[in-house]
Design goal:
The complex is a heterodimer of chains A (131) and B (294). Helix content of chain A is 46%, strand content 24%. With 131 residues, chain A is an alpha+beta fold. Chain A has one domain. In chain A, α2 packs antiparallel against α3. Chain A is globular and about 45 Å long. Chain B is mostly helical and 294 residues long. Among the domains of chain B are: 98 residues; 76 residues, no CATH class. Chain B is built from 18 helices and no strands. In chain B, α2 runs antiparallel to α3 and α5 runs parallel beside α7. Chain B is elongated. Classes of the chains: A alpha+beta (131), B mainly alpha (294).
């Protein structure tokens, strides 16, 4: 019985984990082309991000405050509003991907900070605390 | 195992560590720069932590730069603390960063840092004022300088900034000096130099001012130099005017003087100057000599 309950829990956890990742808006940000999304960060500021993917890797990362954003063009895959934590996680993935060019990873650090989550600042703290 | 191989094996970990350390510093610097886009209250604790921690000078210098870009009194206070209390290269960097930040109160506080600092600190403060384009602060330093070197350094800086008003004001406050004349030349103040060039009360400064006119150059200055040469009542003034024309490259003026001169020694000297100037006018002189009309 205990084993069955445990199995149920494991299955449930797996389902939750799958449903969370499948619901992630930024999963599609790996197809070549321009992608865009915006976040409403902890400071109450809205930031719009633009990312160009080439050969499956981020090539350009740009961010604009919400007031400066331009209307999304047809060729941009607009992912709409994304949670700050998901945006942070996406940028962190770029920072930690050693196959991405250093200048792009540096730009991803800006995106990570601009996502504005506490996790983002903890992560910056971790980088700065390395010996 | 031969010695070279042993040496390579011994050095490899050191090279690898240096590379790793360099990569780590680059990442830290990028992370610090990213904090410039964060709210001050989020960025400040992290930057402070870096400045208090055990990091390379390069990383800490970048932390000071980030502080200069953070719009908060706390960031300025930290920069000032480093500018006042640190004794390493970071002190000089903090001073320069106050210049880059351009905060008026912090810039004003650099006056005390200048007065209590050594030569390197004083130079850094002048640089900060140069970066912040604060000619008034440098003028105050020059006026209150108690030695020629400090005065001269401040005046040089004003010259580089093209601070004509402050430099002219200094003439009234401190009198004319060689460093002031150099600064007039660098700032392109031909009218003040012309006044000094016409003033024979101090022959040494007068000749210096005449030569400095050549640095400013231009049609009006060229005409003035020819006029000074013609009206000169001493060899020194005449020679200074020639040097001024040499510096400004006014060979047509020297040719004009050559053609109107009658004294053979003077003609020879003018000809020498044309040669020094590598002037094509020399061919006109040769043509005229061959035609026999000098």
């Amino acid at each position: 019985m205990r084993l069955a309950k445990l199995l149920m829990l494991v299955l449930l956890a797996g389902t939750l984990s799958w449903s969370e990742s499948s619901a992630a808006e930024l999963d599609g940000v790996s197809a070549d082309g321009w992608h865009s999304w915006h976040v409403d960060n902890a400071e109450g500021d809205q930031v719009q991000f633009y990312v160009l993917i080439e050969n499956g890797k981020p090539e350009k990362i740009r961010s604009l405050s919400w007031n400066c954003r331009k209307p999304t063009r047809d060729k941009i895959n607009d992912h709409g509003e994304v949670s700050a934590s998901e945006s942070y996680a996406w940028f962190r993935g770029v920072v930690e991907d050693s196959t991405v060019e250093e200048r792009v990873r540096d730009a991803a650090l800006f995106g990570l900070v601009e996502s504005g989550t506490d996790d983002a600042f903890d992560y910056i703290d971790q980088i700065l605390s390395k010996r | 195992m031969n010695t070279r191989l042993l040496l390579i094996l011994l050095l490899l970990p050191i090279v690898a560590f240096a590379q790793e350390s360099n990569d780590s510093d680059n990442l830290k610097i990028a992370a610090l720069e990213a904090l410039m886009s964060a709210p001050p209250e989020k960025a400040m604790p992290l930057v402070d932590k870096v400045l208090a921690g055990n990091h390379s000078t390069e990383v800490k210098e970048r932390a000071l730069f980030v502080l200069s870009q953070i719009d908060s009194s706390e960031a300025q206070a930290t920069l000032l603390r480093f500018a006042r209390e640190d004794t390493s290269e970071l002190q000089l960097e903090a001073i320069r960063m106050i210049g880059i930040g351009g905060d008026k109160d912090a810039l004003a506080s650099l006056g005390d840092v200048y007065r209590s600092g050594d030569a390197d600190v004083r130079d850094a403060v002048l640089e900060a004022y140069l970066i912040a384009d604060d000619a008034t602060a440098i003028y105050e330093i020059a006026v209150n300088a108690d030695n020629e070197e400090d005065f001269s350094n401040a005046v040089d800086m004003l010259g580089a900034m093209g601070a004509g008003n402050e430099l002219r004001e200094l003439r009234g406050q401190a009198g004319v000096s060689e460093s002031l004349i150099d600064a007039y030349a660098i700032s392109g103040d031909a009218s003040t130099l012309r006044e000094l060039a016409m003033d024979g009360s101090d022959p040494e400064l007068q000749t210096k001012a005449i030569e400095a006119l050549g640095i400013v150059g231009g049609d009006q200055v060229d005409s003035t130099l020819v006029e000074i040469y013609r009206d000169a009542n001493s060899d020194e003034v005449r020679e200074a005017a020639l040097t001024g024309m040499l510096i400004s490259g006014h060979d047509s003026g020297v040719l004009e003087l050559y053609q109107s001169a009658s004294d053979p020694a003077e003609k020879r000297q003018l000809l020498e100057y044309l040669v020094m100037m590598d002037s094509d006018a020399i061919y006109d002189v040769i043509d005229q000599a061959l035609a026999g009309d000098q």
